[in-house]
Design goal:
Length: 283
């Protein structure tokens, strides 16, 4: 067994916990992988290894919030390495553990008392004048938005070559079921069980009351074509990667052939997490 640890390096408590976990795993006789920068931060450069060695891991332990887990998921996509997220932030839909539960949970992990839950990625391609100019993989969503001071944009949407609707809006969110509780939820999109496979299109601040989210089967190809009288339009992947779009660019989204694996230890299902994260405060 080789356990990888990937802390959010800008969170001191995540770095401190990494140091504690290295000691814990040493005592258990378990090999540890650390990215070279994190290894240097905890004073253990001997443990630092290049990212190419990620493929040899049994589990990758991610210390941070949902953002850190999204980044890690994209980084190891296609390597068949499951992720175990430890919430070091505030709102954690994707993380499995709170930091105070970690050592009890790790005992179960080392004993093999866990399952792996699979979720879908989407692959996104940008085409400009018929040529591919960018490609990305996302666990949550691909989002097309206007800039802060730009005017609204027109978005033509197509599913499997069939014209669905033209939206006059601030943008469009194309999300996985995992991403249904992220930006799409804030824009009024549906909550989708992350163990389903589907693709959801949710307009952002549409200029018509008739505009609604559309959910399609995972095998569908979703195309969004941008029309704008300005050059301030962005494609954002998982809220972390960005690409500037031009008018008449087409953004094509498909289900990815690879899947993300998440370690499940506590037996909580999605709806228990949803209740904890979204419950109404006591009056």
């Amino acid at each position: 067994m080789i356990i990888g640890i990937m802390p959010h390096t800008r969170k001191p408590e995540a770095v401190a916990m990494t140091k504690e976990l290295v000691t814990f795993f040493d005592e258990q006789g378990v090999s540890v992988w650390l990215e070279q920068g994190a290894a240097g931060l905890i004073g253990r450069p001997d443990l630092g290894q290049p990212l190419q060695e990620l493929k040899n891991l049994t589990v990758l332990l991610v210390l941070g919030g949902d953002g850190a887990l999204l980044n890690a998921a994209r980084l190891i996509s296609g390597l068949n390495v499951p992720l175990l997220g430890v919430n070091m932030g505030h709102l954690g839909f994707l993380t499995e553990l709170e930091k105070e539960d970690i050592y009890t949970a790790l005992e179960r992990l080392l004993n093999g008392e866990y399952t792996v839950e699979e979720r879908m990625f989407i692959d996104t391609v940008v085409k400009r004048e018929g040529a591919e100019v960018a490609s990305y993989r996302a666990l949550n969503d691909a989002v097309i938005t206007r800039g802060t001071f730009a005017r609204i944009i027109r978005l033509q949407t197509w599913v499997d070559g069939y014209h669905v609707m033209d939206y006059i809006a601030d943008g469009m969110i194309v999300s996985t079921p995992t991403g249904s509780t992220a930006y799409s939820l804030s824009a009024g999109g549906p909550i989708v069980d992350p163990l389903l496979d589907s693709i959801t299109m949710t307009p952002i601040c549409p200029h018509t009351l008739a505009a609604r989210s559309v959910v399609v089967r995972p095998q569908s190809e979703v195309t969004v074509t941008v029309e704008a009288a300005h050059e301030d339009v962005m494609l954002t992947i998982d809220g972390q990667l960005g690409f500037r779009l031009q008018s008449h660019d087409s953004v094509i989204i498909r289900q990815s052939p690879v899947r993300a694996g998440f370690v499940k230890l506590r037996g909580r299902n999605f709806f228990q997490v949803l209740h904890e994260r979204l419950k109404t405060p006591q009056v």
